[in-house]
Structures are given as C-alpha cells and as structure tokens.
Specification:
301 residues
Length: 301
C-alpha cells in the first residue's frame, strides 16, 4: 500500500499557502469565517476540477468517502454541501483571480526564451474570444435572448508558450472590441487581432501607448495612399502608407498607418492588414497574423 503523500497534495505544493493568504487578506476572503477557509474552498474546487466532479453532491461525496484523507490533502475544515455552496456564492472571486494571474506570470517566465518560427524581439499577443452557453436559470445575468444565455471568455494570449496573459469573462452580448478598453497595455509589444476588433479610436489609443498592432481590415475600408513600397515577395500584392479617408475615421485615427495586401495561395484569399509597424516587411506582417491561430487552438484545448 502506498503510504506516501497523495498526488493531489504534491500538485498543490506549487501553490504556497502564504502568497495565497496575502490574496485572501487583500480581499477579506475569510471575513466572518470560522472553520471552512478560502484555502479549504480552493482545495475542494481544485480537487473537483482535477477529478472531473460534476456537482456539489459529487464533490462532497467523493471527499467524504475517506474522511481520514482530508487532512493529508490539506483540507482542515469540515466539508459539507451547504458549506461549499455558501462559500462559492459569497467568497470574493478576486482572491482566485489574483491567484490565477500569479500562476500565469510564473508560467510565462518559463517560456520567455522560446523561439518562434520567425525571429521576434517583441512580445506577441493574440486577441480573441469564445462563447460558452450556460443555463439561463443558473446565470440570469448572462441572458442573451429570452430563451438563451451565454458568457464570453475574452483572452489575450502570449504566443510564446500559448499562455493567457489576460482573461475577462462577460455576458455574451458584450462585443469583442470592448476587450481593448480593459486589458493592460504592454508598451513595445505586438497585438494581433481579427477584424472584429477594428475600432480606430481604440487602435489609436494602443498606438499612443507605444504598442504595435496587426489587424485585418474590413472590406469597406476607405484609405488614401501616400506612398508605396515595392513588395519583397510575390505574395504581397501591395505595401502602402497613408491615412484613413472619412471625417470620423480621420478624427479617431489622425496619424498615418500602413496597409498591406497579401494573397494566401493555400486558402486563395486576399488579406488586407492594417498596422503601425514600419520596420517589418510585408511577409513578416502576414506571418505575424498567421500566429493568431494559436489562440483558436488554445480555445479548442
């Protein structure tokens, strides 16, 4: 018989209780709590996630099947369905958000030196979101239509290691472009986006914060060319610098920007990109946009 530490307990060694306690004290997570602490709650929910429990009854039934093991798992408080339900409903979620971001920062450090297909000195992020359908009876705040509900997980993915650097969960009715208002800007980094994020006022805000972006243009783009550069690759149809045409567009983005027209021979699609990157050639711009598909693979996983 195995008399060593449980595997779950060894996994939880990666999360030290002292930093976790700082997050709890910051948000007063254990306010008016006597026995079942935030640490106990976290261990119960982590156990449920790792063992694919499907309900509170399933979680409690599994944990209390061998009550003598609870202390060895690190759970010191009594585990009851009502206690766990109350904790999940009333404890501040910010405690676990801070914990998640601290773990994300540790994981990103492990992949900081990872090499990509093209040489990049800048950190490259891909922006996208996915929609998850939820029960309208349990999540009335996520109501989308009279008969359905859903939440969106907006994600800023660090392409080195495919690790999310920022995640926001909103009702599904919130438009994707609102993510540009919430995530912290990292000066010198490159943000790669689909045309669902095309908003010139928000892109100009990124530009003013010394960030770079690569985004697909919409079909109705009105653009005035100032000058053109000879394409270095036959797949690059054009490489132009100019300004937006239209009163409101120019008011939102008053500075010049770059438009790259690229033909993808595999999908036989004409792709038009807008960017404020001036040093990279047109093929490199297209390759950077290609890496945006890593965020799609992240959602599938």
């Amino acid at each position: 018989m195995n008399t060593g530490r449980p595997v779950f307990s060894q996994l939880m060694d990666w999360i030290h209780p002292q930093p976790f306690q700082r997050f709890v004290e910051r948000h007063r997570g254990n306010y008016k709590t006597q026995t079942f602490s935030c640490w106990d709650q976290f261990l119960c929910m982590a156990f449920a996630q790792l063992t694919f429990r499907e309900s509170l009854r399933d979680i409690v039934g599994c944990l209390t099947a061998r009550p003598g093991m609870l202390y060895r798992l690190g759970i010191h408080g009594p585990v009851a369905r009502s206690t766990l339900a109350d904790a999940n409903e009333t404890r501040p979620w910010q405690v676990y958000a801070d914990l998640a971001y601290s773990l994300i920062n540790r994981a990103r450090e492990l992949y900081r030196g990872e090499e990509l297909e093209i040489e990049l000195k800048n950190t490259v992020y891909a922006l996208d979101c996915t929609t998850v359908e939820v029960c309208i009876g349990l999540f009335p705040w996520a109501k989308h239509r009279s008969f359905s509900a859903g939440v969106k997980m907006h994600t800023v993915l660090d392409l080195r290691g495919s690790i999310p650097a920022y995640i926001a969960v909103t009702p599904s009715r919130v438009h994707d472009v609102n993510l540009l208002d919430t995530f912290p800007h990292d000066p010198g980094s490159i943000y790669v986006m689909d045309r669902g994020y095309l908003d010139f006022e928000r892109l100009y805000r990124l530009h003013l914060d010394e960030c770079f972006y690569v985004i697909r243009a919409k079909d109705n783009l009105k653009f005035v060319r100032y000058r053109s550069a000879p394409p270095a690759d036959k797949r690059a149809r054009s490489d132009q610098v100019g300004r937006l045409r239209g009163f409101y567009s120019r008011k939102s983005y008053p500075e010049p920007l770059r438009k790259v027209h690229f033909f993808d021979p595999i999908s036989e699609l004409d792709l038009v990109f807008l960017t404020n990157l001036c040093q990279a050639d047109a093929l490199t711009i297209a390759r950077r946009y290609k890496y945006r598909w890593q965020v799609e693979l992240f959602f599938i996983k």
